[in-house]
Design brief:
Shape: globular
Distance between the termini: 31 Å
Radius of gyration: 23 Å
Number of strands: 15
Strand content: 5-15%
Largest sheet: 5 strands, parallel
Structural class: alpha/beta
Number of helices: 19
Length: 495
């Protein structure tokens, strides 16, 4: 421990965000540049170096959190980077995008604010890049074995990097024109700027990983043909089959899925488009769904200049403190959290129909109505109780020129024919079935990430990529030294 009394003498201090009025005028990350390093050493010193660190159990990557906290508190950034990268291929991604279940499992969080683990993590990752602590690590020799990885999200990239470093020749196939999956076209730049992604991809190129973009396996190249060309295939195609809301008025123009809307905004930022054809500018926007994707839509609509933006959450507003009967420590609690997007909507009063921060809780959509041209103009909702039963007399109507459905995903998409061409078995949830070694029913084909697990957090995605790489390496060589942080049937801690 750098400071045995740090958790007693130092208060929790988060990475400060830029003023709302400033950040909503651009697509840059919301945090004040350079403001983290002056505070992160003392924040790392709040770590108690617990004998049984439950932050390890809460994080599927098995991050060595007390170790790199101690090293940061001692200003040993190179060693901290080594310990962080020992368990996580992309800590600058997780440090920005993960909701930090590790902090919920922090022992200090039993009765005090947790250590700012996520901030320490991203500080180490950024320092590693600026100081040259993250050079390419090409293998000393090649194995002569080849692997195709389908999908370039966090699972696919982690699997590819691990297998490349183990000496295999790896090609990553991506159906989009750029690499990164949802990190590229689903996550807005104000949450993670794309240069972080580009930097890791260039590192992987230097290590020897090959990339094939604009190639949809099953459509542009036959899945069976691809299987015949490689010693192993890893399916990391994500869970892209979005959930629908089959209500009256769903067919109206202006009712879209979140993942139809967000990629267009990202393409504007990439310079592909001057303006999004689904832009929220000058529109009343309603987002159906209370999760992170809905919050991403919220922040995007605010930046595009929406007249109003309201987010509907079918669940009741959670409390500010952990309910020990429902979500006891060290599980990840359902509490009221104020994301950057919600803070912006609150301060700008972007949702006059909502209580405070653009969200309407315990709200269930009934139907949509439109004008004579078939364009949506209103969303009709009702308040519900804890059992999702409508409350009599609670019906409301919100103006809506653009409705975005952010209801999550049910499994991998099947429009490209990949699943049918390979003859893959699916489990009852619609995800790809696999055994204890991540192997599918097709010999030599493995499945990892959201395509097989179901939609989850980025830390689980990277952990899946690392674990499937170990399974493939073992199958190709008879043994492996690659770490496997999780098994395919492991799940987050629950009561």
């Amino acid at each position: 421990m750098g400071d045995p009394k740090g958790f007693l003498t130092t208060a929790r201090q988060n990475w400060p965000r830029r003023p709302v009025e400033e950040r909503v005028r651009d697509w840059d990350e919301v945090y004040v540049p350079g403001a983290l390093l002056p505070i992160v050493g003392k924040q790392a010193g709040r770590c108690m170096d617990c004998g049984v660190p439950f932050c390890h159990e809460a994080c599927p990557l098995g991050n060595l959190i007390p170790e790199w906290n101690d090293l940061v508190s001692r200003d040993d950034w190179r060693a901290a980077s080594d310990r962080l990268h020992a368990t996580n291929n992309f800590p600058e991604f997780t440090g920005r995008l993960c909701p930090a279940p590790c902090e919920a499992g922090c022992v200090l969080a039993i009765n005090q604010p947790a250590v700012t683990i996520k901030n320490v993590e991203v500080a180490i990752a950024d320092r590693a890049w600026s100081e040259g602590f993250a050079p390419p690590r090409p293998p000393d020799r090649l194995s002569g074995r080849t692997v195709a990885v389908i999908g370039s999200g966090p699972t696919g990239l982690a699997a590819a990097q691990q297998l490349t470093r183990a000496g295999h020749t790896v090609a990553v196939y991506e159906k989009d024109d750029r690499l990164g999956g949802l990190m590229r076209y689903g996550i807005p730049g104000f949450k993670m700027e794309k240069h972080h992604l580009e930097r890791r991809i260039e590192q992987m190129r230097a290590e020897g990983t090959k990339f094939r973009t604009s190639t949809a396996v099953g459509r542009d190249v036959g899945a069976a043909e691809l299987r015949s060309r490689y010693d192993a295939v890893v399916l990391a195609v994500g869970a892209t089959a979005w959930r629908e809301l089959p209500l009256p008025g769903r067919e109206l123009t202006g009712v879209h899925q979140a993942m139809e809307y967000l990629p267009l905004a990202n393409r504007v930022c990439q310079g592909d488009l001057e303006a999004s054809p689904m832009s929220a500018a000058g529109k009343h926007v309603v987002i159906v769904g209370g999760g992170d994707t809905g919050a991403d839509c919220l922040g995007t609509a605010v930046r595009e200049g929406a007249v109003s933006v309201t987010q509907l959450d079918i669940y009741a507003q959670p409390g500010a403190e952990r309910d020990e009967d429902v979500d006891p420590w060290p599980t990840y609690p359902k509490i009221y959290r104020l994301s950057a997007a919600h803070e912006e909507a609150r301060d700008l009063e972007s949702a006059p129909a909502a209580d405070a921060d653009a969200r309407l809780f315990a709200a269930s959509t009934l139907h949509f109505s439109g004008d004579t041209d078939g364009h949506v103009r209103a969303l009709h909702l009702v308040e519900v109780d804890a059992e999702r039963r409508p409350m009599p007399g609670s019906g409301r109507t919100l103006p809506a020129d653009l409705v975005l459905l952010a209801l999550g995903f049910s499994g991998p998409g099947q429009e490209d024919g990949l699943i049918n061409q390979l003859g893959l078995a699916l489990d009852p949830r619609g995800t790809i079935a696999r055994d204890a070694d991540f192997a599918t029913n097709v010999p030599g084909v493995y499945a990892a990430g959201d395509a097989a697990r179901g939609q989850s957090l980025i830390v689980w995605a990277i952990a899946e990529g690392r674990a499937v790489a170990a399974a493939v390496d073992r199958r190709l060589t008879g043994a492996t030294q690659l770490p496997a942080p999780i098994g395919p049937f492991d799940r987050p801690m629950t009561v």
